[in-house]
Amino acid sequence: MKLIAVGDNVVDCYLDQQTYYPGGNCVNVAVNAKKNGAESAAYIGIFGTDDKAEHIQYALKEEAVDFRFSRTAEGLSGQPQVSLTDEGDRVFVGGPKNTVQHKLKLQLVPEELEYISEFDLCHVSCYSSMESELPKLSNVVNVSFDFSNRLEIDYVKSIAPHINYAFFSAADLANDELDGFIEQVKAFNFEVFAMTRGSLPAVFVCNGERIEQKLNPIQVVDTMGAGDSLIGGFLVNYINGESPEAALEKATKSAETTCGIYGGFGYPKSF
């Protein structure tokens, strides 16, 4: 299985540690795909020209994720600030709004689309500003899309024709709201769609069949990137031929590993 991710890269800045870690949904999914046995993983995005961009690229090289088609633009990298609550949860509390990804959008050219077509799957996120490029992508490759907490059905409907796999963060939905949301999303005929639910078991719907994640008791160090790890682990194992249940079990182990370290996949660097 070969996976490429196109879109966001950031460094998550932990204020309590005065340390940042490479991340961003698309970077995290690409790295975790490789960790879960993808034959190859690649990433296309826009890098800034600061030390944070250099650190992200260093981490990608160390994880054998190819980013040769990425752009570099003068300016700052995305650097969301992360604070620790009294309960021990990490929350995003801001960050600069004049980063290269705020200023610029990716537009894929034929050479890149030909390269992307060599992969089994392209992963994109709602943070990537790639909605206008999805028709191009879906013409050459199957597409996975992380909606995060963008649960508005009109938004889902607007891009659903170009997506095979959809992932949602539904931690704020009560059980009856979740059931109603699932029924609405079924109308789009995704091969797989999934709802992560924070500390509750994720729910996957694979070819119309509902599957619930089995959680194991673990010692959590940091939940940053756990959902991205779940996505990368599921996609690789499912597309490699595992049953949905087996793919979800392996994806859960991948997320457990991520919960045992700081950052999306490690590589701390002091401010």
Count of the separate structural domains: 1
Question: pLDDT average, as an integer?
Answer: 96
Structural class, judged by helices and strands?
Answer: alpha/beta
Uncertain regions: pLDDT < 50 for 5+ in a row? Answer: none
Task: Kindly report the name of the CATH homologous superfamily.
Answer: Ribokinase
Class in CATH?
A: Alpha Beta
Task: Give the DSSP E fraction (strand runs of 2 or more residues).
Answer: 25-35%
The number of strands is 16
Structure in words:
The structure is a single chain. The protein has 9 helices and 16 strands. The chain has 271 residues and is α/β, with parallel strands linked by helices. It has a 9-stranded mixed β-sheet, with helices on both faces. It has a 5-stranded mixed β-sheet with strand order 9-8-2-3-16. Strand 8 (81-84) and strand 9 (90-92) form a beta hairpin. Residues 12-260 form the Carbohydrate kinase PfkB domain. Keywords: Kinase, Transferase. This is Fructoselysine 6-kinase. GO terms for molecular function: kinase activity.
